[in-house]
Amino acid sequence: MALTLGEWSNGFSAAALHELAILWNANAARRHAFYPWTGEMLAKLLSSGGKGIGRLLEARVDGRLVGVSHASVINEDGYPLAGSVEMLMVDEAYRKKGIGSALLRGATAFLDSQRPRPEFIDALGAWPFGYLYNVLADGSERSGVFLNDSGLYRLFRRAGFEPVRKSYVMRADANNPLAAPRPLPPGAGFYVAKRGDRTWLDRVFRGRELWDHDLIAADGQRLSRSIFGLMEGESRREGKVVFSLFGVNTPADVRGKGYAGINLSHLLAHIAQLGGDLIELHVYADNLPALALYRRLGFRQLHETMMMHARW
Question: Helix or strand or coil: residue 205?
Answer without folding.
Answer: helix
